[in-house]
């Protein structure tokens, strides 16, 4: 690691959040004198201090260590074979839970068919037929449409 790379990374993280080193010290439990050492001497953190900083910043530890130059990107990656099926499923479950927690819990009262976005999230409207039936009818009508005149149709 180049001298000061940890501090440069950390300073960018602080600036991004509008924090001062004292705020990081309070949030992480790392002493202000230790943070000052990182800044003045370019010294790297211990793993417990890096873990505390990662938690305070709301960042995962391994990407923080890579961003700070304490780990090479290749060192942070492991082959999928290094994980058990249970560990992989747990990770997928955790990431799915994190993503779904960000989706607003709203009900769609009117179904919409937007040809520009086939993945648009829609829900059954209580006053109409189920979306599955509506979608099948839409697909059927698209499939039965005649081709546009052009070079491929012989028109």
Automatic annotation (TrEMBL):
<dbReference type="Pfam" id="PF01381">
    <property type="entry name" value="HTH_3"/>
</dbReference>
<feature type="domain" description="HTH cro/C1-type">
    <location>
        <begin position="10"/>
        <end position="64"/>
    </location>
</feature>
<feature type="compositionally biased region" description="Basic and acidic residues">
    <location>
        <begin position="134"/>
        <end position="148"/>
    </location>
</feature>
<dbReference type="InterPro" id="IPR001387">
    <property type="entry name" value="Cro/C1-type_HTH"/>
</dbReference>
<protein>
    <submittedName>
        <fullName>Helix-turn-helix domain-containing protein</fullName>
    </submittedName>
</protein>
<feature type="region of interest" description="Disordered">
    <location>
        <begin position="117"/>
        <end position="155"/>
    </location>
</feature>
<dbReference type="InterPro" id="IPR010982">
    <property type="entry name" value="Lambda_DNA-bd_dom_sf"/>
</dbReference>
């Amino acid at each position: 690691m180049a001298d000061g790379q940890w501090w440069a990374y950390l300073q960018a993280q602080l600036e991004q959040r509008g924090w001062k080193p004292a705020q990081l010290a309070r949030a992480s439990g790392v002493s202000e004198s230790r943070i000052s050492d990182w800044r003045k001497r370019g010294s790297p953190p211990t793993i417990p201090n890096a873990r505390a900083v990662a938690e305070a910043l709301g960042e995962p530890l391994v990407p923080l260590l890579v961003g700070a130059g304490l780990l090479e990107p290749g060192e942070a990656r492991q082959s999928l074979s290094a994980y058990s099926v249970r560990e992989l499923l747990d990770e997928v479950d955790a990431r799915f839970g994190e993503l779904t927690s960000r989706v607003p819990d709203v009900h769609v009262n009117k179904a919409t068919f937007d040809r520009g976005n086939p993945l648009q999230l829609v829900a059954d409207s209580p006053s109409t037929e189920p979306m599955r039936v509506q979608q099948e009818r839409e697909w059927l009508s698209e499939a039965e449409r005649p081709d546009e005149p052009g070079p491929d149709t012989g028109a």
